[in-house]
From TrEMBL, chain A:
Gene Ontology terms: cellular component: plasma membrane
Domain Na+/H+ antiporter MnhB subunit-related protein residue range list: 116-196
Pfam families per the UniProt record, alphabetical: MnhB
Protein name, entry field: Na+/H+ antiporter MnhB subunit-related protein domain-containing protein
Keywords: Cell membrane, Membrane, Transmembrane, Transmembrane helix
Membrane topology, as annotated: Multi-pass membrane protein
TrEMBL record, chain B:
Family to which this protein belongs: Belongs to the CPA3 antiporters (TC 2.A.63) subunit C family.
Localization: Cell membrane
GO-annotated cellular components: plasma membrane
Topology relative to the membrane: Multi-pass membrane protein
Name under which the protein is recorded: Cation:proton antiporter
Parts of the chain that traverse the membrane: 6-22, 29-51, 71-93
Keyword Mitochondrion: no
Protein source organism: Sinosporangium siamense
PANTHER family referenced in this protein's UniProt entry, alphabetically: ANTIPORTER SUBUNIT MNHC2-RELATED
Keywords assigned by UniProt, alphabetized: Cell membrane, Membrane, Transmembrane, Transmembrane helix
Main subcellular location: membrane
From TrEMBL, chain C:
Pfam families on file: MbhD
Topology class, membrane: Multi-pass membrane protein
Record keywords: Cell membrane, Membrane, Transmembrane, Transmembrane helix
InterPro entries according to UniProt: MrpA_C/MbhD, Nuo/plastoQ_OxRdtase_6_NuoJ
High-level lineage: Bacteria, Bacillati, Actinomycetota, Actinomycetes, Streptosporangiales
Domain MrpA C-terminal/MbhD: 12-76
GO annotation, cellular component aspect: plasma membrane
Localisation per UniProt entry: Cell membrane
Organism: Sinosporangium siamense
Protein's name according to its UniProt entry: MrpA C-terminal/MbhD domain-containing protein
């Protein structure tokens, strides 16, 4: 049996080596057909910059995402919503386990230094503020809905570093974020289809959506990982 | 030498694929896949780079100054964020596999049904 | 100067990507992955892409490694509860 498995592994590695050599050859040929790194010919980029400045958006990346290619971003958004939804559905089992046997679970231990705890609490408002700032200034400076959304989605988990999972659980009621995610996704569909180019509201909506999606996904993983049976 | 940046992306893709093929743990497979995916960020941003140009944000520079390509940056940006949720989906599937089958070794998962 | 910086950032990213793949234990891999995410963030800044670097730093150094560690913890919990 183990000999058979080893044979299969060797065969798989040989197959991979052949494929990798082929890929390397074709990829190198393709790359040699590109302009050299750092070249001066960027027809799409030049046009995008011109269009963005015509519409008065200093951050051209935001302009491309939410104005010139809003329909494309809509597709990306739907992938994000679908993935987050699938994670929530896939990791839902533990909810039933939890409801079946209330009181038999406890959350992980929380032995952390007092200084770390205080720093965590103090940093939470700062990180959330930074996230909101990044979303709100997406039109003018580097930043926007996607970047601010991921900052907001991860910032909340500073509380976990303080070792206080219950506090984290209290400040992010999952149903609220599920609702926020759905509403923001719907709002983005409307904005992208009918009002593409309204960069500030689109940034805000995407920020809410990405932040909610990240918080939801991490909440589900936390539930799966931290529910420890007391009688184990 | 001028193509070394693109070839770095090719190297990272192949490294990720090698990890996937030789892996003994589905979590390791998912991480290697995310490494292979990260090569697309490198490739896209390298294609859009321009020597001596600055970031494509005009709040503090005058229009007309050469900037790098914002189109590929916008693509990479959505790619990074959406890629993270897709990685989350794959990890959730891995957790489910371990729950149902009691193992995360791909070689022990020969059939779909047991 | 800029050229050397770019070459260094590319080399670091390639090196750390290889290190992530060759680290077999998922928990250690999550830590190396976090370092790789950081190196990608630095590379994106040197490639003049601050927007992408911002997202990459939050996603690559916090979000994905945290999810990997939580998934490993969940898998260990299930396997402890129901030995195969």
């Amino acid at each position: 049996m183990s000999k058979g498995v080893n044979g299969v592994r060797r065969l798989r590695l040989c197959l991979m080596a052949a494929g990798a050599l082929g890929f390397a050859a074709v990829f190198t040929l393709a790359v040699l057909g590109l302009q050299p790194f750092g070249g001066d010919v960027h027809p799409y980029g030049d046009r995008a910059v011109r269009a963005s400045l015509l519409r008065g958006t200093p951050n051209t990346v935001s302009s491309v995402n939410f104005d010139q290619r809003a329909l494309d971003t809509l597709g990306e958004e739907l992938i994000l919503v679908a993935s987050a939804l699938a994670v929530v559905v896939l990791l839902r089992m533990v909810r039933r386990e939890e409801e079946d046997e209330p009181g038999r679970h406890r959350y992980g231990p929380a032995d952390v230094f007092e200084a770390l705890r205080v720093t965590g609490y103090a940093l939470l408002p700062v990180t959330v503020l930074v996230g909101v700032y990044v979303v709100a200034h997406g039109q003018l400076s580097p930043g926007g809905g996607f970047q601010g959304g991921v900052v907001l989605g991860t910032a909340v988990h500073v509380l976990y570093l303080t070792g206080d999972y219950r506090a984290l659980d209290r400040i992010r009621p999952v149903p609220l974020f599920e609702g926020g995610e759905a509403v923001a996704a719907a709002a983005f569909v409307v904005l992208a289809l009918a009002f593409a180019g309204l960069i500030i509201p689109m940034n805000a909506v995407v920020g809410v959506e990405v932040g909610c999606a990240f918080i939801l996904v991490l909440a589900k993983f936390f539930e799966q990982a931290l529910l420890v049976r007391e009688t184990g | 030498m001028a193509w070394a940046a693109y070839l770095t992306a090719g190297w990272i893709v192949l490294a990720g694929f090698y990890g996937i093929v030789t892996s003994r743990n589905l979590v390791h497979v998912v991480v290697c896949l995310s490494v292979a995916q990260s090569a697309t960020y490198l490739l896209l941003l390298s294609v859009g780079y321009r020597w001596g140009a600055t970031a494509p944000v005009f709040s503090d520079i005058r229009p007309g100054r050469p900037v790098v390509d914002p189109v590929v940056q916008a693509m990479t940006l959505t790619d990074v964020v959406v890629g993270a949720t897709v990685t989350a989906l794959l990890l959730a599937l891995t957790v489910q596999v371990s729950k149902r089958r009691g193992t995360v070794d791909p070689d022990a998962l020969r059939t779909l049904e047991e | 100067m800029g050229e050397a910086l770019l070459a260094g950032a590319f080399a670091l990213a390639a090196l750390l990507a290889t290190a992530v793949v060759l680290t077999r234990d998922p928990v250690r891999q999550a830590i190396v992955l976090s370092g790789y995410g950081l190196s990608l963030g630095v590379l994106f800044v040197t490639l003049q892409a601050p927007d992408v670097a911002m997202a990459q730093l939050a996603v690559g150094t916090v979000m994905v490694p945290l999810m990997v560690i939580l998934a490993v913890a969940a898998i260990r919990r299930h396997q402890r509860e129901e030995p195969p």
